């Protein structure tokens, strides 16, 4: 009996699909748990920058509130790069297996980049 390369996949390949879905679920849940920490760590410097902009730079309070909301949305959009990087790394280099402490490394690198952006904004506020 020869193997037909054009035959539809057999039912045992479904197990691989379910495994991939559980790996995806694990990545999403792991990153969503860290989202609260990320937002909490960026909230304080973000509020300090907004307060400086309103008090020292004369920005209207309404513009400061809108700016804070936009910054929060932008930070959370940028946060999606973390799970995306992990998914690509796992798919390309680990055959879907967990990356151990790599998630924390990616998270830390994202915090450093976010802090750098906040520092640039703060530096620009004083120029």
Give the helix/strand layout.
Elements: H1 13-55, H2 61-79, H3 81-93, H4 102-125
Structure description:
The chain has one domain. The chain is mostly helical. Helix 1 runs antiparallel to helix 3 and helix 1 packs parallel to helix 4.
Mean pLDDT over the full residue set: 84
Please identify the structural class as seen in this structure.
Answer: mainly alpha
Number of strands: 0
Principal-axes geometry comes out as elongated
List keywords for this structure.
127 residues; mainly alpha
Overview in brief:
The protein has 127 residues and is mostly helical.
């Amino acid at each position: 009996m020869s193997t037909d390369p054009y035959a539809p996949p057999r039912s045992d390949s479904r197990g691989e699909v379910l495994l991939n879905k559980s790996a995806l679920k694990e990545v999403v849940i792991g990153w969503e748990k860290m989202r609260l920490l990320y937002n909490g760590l960026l909230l304080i410097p973000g509020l300090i920058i907004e307060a400086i902009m309103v008090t020292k730079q004369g920005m209207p309070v309404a513009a400061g509130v809108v700016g804070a909301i936009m910054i929060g949305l932008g930070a959370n959009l940028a946060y999606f790069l973390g799970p995306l990087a992990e998914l690509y790394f796992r798919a390309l280099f680990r055959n879907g297996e967990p990356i151990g402490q790599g998630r924390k490394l990616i998270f830390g690198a994202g915090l450093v980049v976010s802090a750098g952006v906040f520092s640039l904004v703060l530096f620009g506020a004083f120029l």
